[in-house]
Amino acid sequence: MSRYILSIESSCDDSSIALTDIESLEVVAHKKISQEVAHSRYGGVVPELASRMHAVALPKLLELLKDSLDRVAAVAVTTHPGLSVSLHEGVIMAKAVATFLDVPIIGVNHLKGHIYSLFIEKEAKLPLLVLLLSGGHTQILSVKGYDDMSILATTLDDSVGEAYDKVAKMLDLGYPGGPIIEKLAIKGDRERFRFPVPLQNSSRIAFSLSGLKNAVRLQIEALKAKGEMSQKDKCDIAASFEKAVLLHLLQKSKKIFKQETIKHFAIVGGVSANNYIKDGFKRLCSEFNKEMLEVALQYTSDNAAMIGRAAIEAYKAGEFDTIESLKVGANRQLEAGSRLH
Length: 341
Ligand code: KG4
Ligand code: ZN
Fold this sequence. Notes:
single chain; 10 strands; binds zinc ion; alpha/beta; globular; binds 5'-O-[(R)-(carboxyoxy)(hydroxy)phosphoryl]adenosine; 5-stranded mixed sheet
C-alpha cells in the first residue's frame, strides 16, 4: 500500500493541505482555500484575519481527505518564515493529526518548500542556482541538497513581491498586486518613465527595492497633481516599474552567473509566475549556457504540495521533529552567507 505525506501550509493567506506519495512523488490530493478576496479590501494581508480564516479553512480541507488518512506515514507543516499567527494554526493542526495518527512530524522551512516546488512529481535536479522571489523574500541561493542551501545575495530592504504589491496599492489596483501589475504592464510603454535601476553603480551583490518604490511614488504623485491618472498612465507606470525591476534582478544575477559554475538555474516563489521576468532570465540563461528549470504555474504561489515534496527529502533522510520540539520558527531575514534551516 502506498504511503503518503500529509502536508499543511498556512504561512500567509493561503490555507492548503496536500497528500503526496512518498515513493512515486505523485500529488494524490491538493486542496487550497485562498483568502485573497478577504484581504484585498484592506490592500494587504491582515494577520489576525488570516489566522482566524486558517482556523476555519484547515479543518474543512482535512475533512475532504479523511478517507486517505490511514495511508499517512508522516505529517509535514510549514514552521517558518511567515506570519506567526498564521503559522500557529497549521502547526496546531499538524500536531493534532500526527498525535491522532501516531506518525512522525516534520517541520518545513517555507523557502525550502518554494525551492522544492520545482520538483513536485519529479526527482530533484541539483546543484542549482535559485532566484527566490516571494512576497517576503528576494534571495539568490546555491542549492546543493535539502540540508545544504546557502544565501548568496539578499535584499537590503523590501522584497520584489512587496514592491509589486506596494506599487499596485499606490495605483489603487487591489491585492495581490503582482498579477495586476503584470497584466497592465503588457499594455504599457516600458520606456515612458526612466526609473532608477537600484544599486546599478554599486559592485555589491545585493538587492534593494525601496528607492525604486519611492521613485514610482513620486512619479504617481506628479501625475496626480496634474489631474486624474488615465488608464494609459497606470499601464506605463506598471511597465516602466517592471523594466527597472527586471534590469536590477538581471544585473545582480549576472554577477553571480559569472562566479558560479552551477549549470541549472530557476526562479521560484509567487513572482516566478511573471512571464516578463521569466523571459528576461531565459535570455540571461542562454547567454551563460545555463539550463532554466520552471515551476509549474499552479505551484508558484503558496501551496502545501511544495511543503510535502520538501518533506519527502527529510522523511527519506530520517529527519523528524517531535510534537514537543516543533515550534513556529524565527522570522528574521537571513544575511548573505547564511544557510537555510
Ligand atoms: O510566494 P508567494 O505566493 O507568497 C510568499 O511566500 O510571500 O508570493 C506572493 C507574492 C506577492 O507579492 C504577489 O504580488 C507576487 O508574489 N506575485 C507576482 C505575480 N504573481 C504573484 N508578482 C509579479 N508578477 C506576478 N504574475
Ligand atoms: Zn511563499
